[in-house]
Amino acid sequence: MRVDVRALGACNRLAEQGAKQAAGALSDLTGTDLAVEVTGASVASGEDLAESFAGRESIGVSVGLRGGLDGEAVLAFDAVNADALLSLLPGGGSMERSAVTEVGNIALGGFLDGWANYLGKAIDMTPPRYFEADGAAVLPDGALAGDGVFLFESRLDATTTDLDFSIYMLPDSGPFRDLIVGKTAPAATAGGEANGGTTSTAVPYESLSTFSSLAKEGSANAADNIAMMTGLETSVDVSRLRFVPLADVPAEVGTEPHAGTVFELQGEPSGYLAILFEESSAAAVADAMLPMDPNEPLGDMAENALCELGNVMTSGFIDGWANVLGTTITHSPPEFVHDIGASTISPLVAKLSERQDYGFVIDTAIRTEGIQARCDVYALPDERELARALDRLSES
Amino acid sequence: MATRVLIADDSEFMRNLLREILEGEFDIVGEAENGVEAVNMYEEHGPDLVMMDIVMPIRDGIEATTEILEDNPDATVIMCTSVGQEEKMKAAIKAGAEGYITKPFQKPNVLDAIGSAV
């Protein structure tokens, strides 16, 4: 099966519209404004998903889907916020499960309306089921099986309270396959439309899983490089390949101050890579790398240290891709960034947005032991070049 | 005499919410938790109006509406649902529903829908 990246973009738009509808319904029901922060499709192994949900306790409401779309959808929120939600519902405090179940039913109904209307087919929902779950058990059935599945995820954040929701939808193959399957010719040769060739964004489904595995390897290499240069023990917390609207990426990085390095990638695929630390993490990691105390937390010495670290990490990250894809990928010298999170990555997103609206984002969280430090790596490859490289990979 | 209403929804929370909205102006004759109960309670109480959820266990609201209208062509049913899909609404109207309201709703939406249907 070939997955058309543009068709996946259309699905993403549907998921985003659905999430907005769900946010509107939840806002009406709770009297609290909710905004859609992020909507994307991710391809991750069950093992990776289990890791990224570890330690979370959630309350969820799930519905089964049949008809226009088969699968399962879940509305979930942190268990610690249950009382806050119930207090916002009329008479909800006395009904707990029934109230929460209905909240899920209403939100998921709104989420699915757009999909059904787009498909021109009804989507039947099973009656909602309330559940409490630890870790990744909150995800729809089947999300943890296999090497990689398309899991749509939307995050709805309340603007005035800590009440946040996530919607997960795991479509079965079948009708969903018809939506995303590439109907175009195999991916184009280098040069694309500009050289008179055909440009396709259809990639073999299996190669997306392969690329997701590659991203994981790259993350492990980058983490090892941090360990070598700082002497700190590191572990990779999260590594996921996601397909998201590029415009959403800055909001994901957030408004907290960050420091790190950004790079332009040349080769196939080209694109951008950002290695970002929260400000305190950046200072702690730089401190661990320097032989003496720096004069100021993120001054020139720290900047140099972080640039060198970024250089080594980036090489570790992309070498694995190049080897497996059979291409050569090089990177620009590091550019140090120190600003609020969204501003550090916005210039990269703006450049890539000249070519595409959606992108595969590989996000990786690397955690260090001993000191509190976390590093997020965002890789933003050119979708067409990535499609070509993946296509060749599947043929070799 | 107040309009006699049957509420059919599998959510206790939603049944209570509808009851709060309707009590005082309408006579609530019963509350059904699924489509089968809705059909049985319709036969038992003969209400003027049914507020019917679509997604319910055992038998959904569209099937229950079809069954009620087969034996009671003059029955008035308003779909009251979280699902706003066009195809679902077409199916509800085809089954004979007089109208529908989409959850979450406010009291004025409910009263307007009832005013139009009854």
TrEMBL record, chain A:
Keywords annotated in UniProt: Chemotaxis, Hydrolase
Kindly list the biological process annotations in GO that this record carries: chemotaxis
Q: Which GO terms describe its molecular function?
A: hydrolase activity
Q: In its UniProt entry, what is this protein called?
A: Chemotaxis protein CheY-P-specific phosphatase CheC
| Domain of life (superkingdom) | Archaea
Q: Which SUPFAM superfamilies match?
A: CheC-like
Keyword Hydrolase attributed: yes
InterPro entries for this protein: CheC, CheC-like_sf, CheZ_family_phosphatases
**Family matches, as PANTHER family:** PROTEIN PHOSPHATASE CHEZ
According to the entry, every stretch annotated as the CheC-like protein domain falls at 95-129, 301-337
Automatic annotation (TrEMBL), chain B:
> Where 4-aspartylphosphate occurs, residue numbers?
D53
* Organism from which the protein derives: Halorubrum trapanicum
Q: Which UniProt keywords apply?
A: Phosphoprotein
User: SMART domains, alphabetically?
Assistant: REC (SM00448)
| A GO biological process held by the record | phosphorelay signal transduction system
- The reply to whether Phosphoprotein figures as a keyword in the UniProt entry is yes
Per the record's keyword annotation, is Phosphoprotein included, yes or no?
yes
Q: What is this protein called?
A: Two-component system chemotaxis response regulator CheY
Q: Record's Pfam families?
A: Response_reg (PF00072)
Q: Which positions fall inside the Response regulatory domain?
A: 4-118
**Record's NCBIfam families?**
CheY_Halo (NF041367)
The organism that produces this protein has a lineage beginning with: Archaea, Methanobacteriati, Methanobacteriota, Stenosarchaea group, Halobacteria
Q: Matching PROSITE patterns, A to Z?
A: RESPONSE_REGULATORY
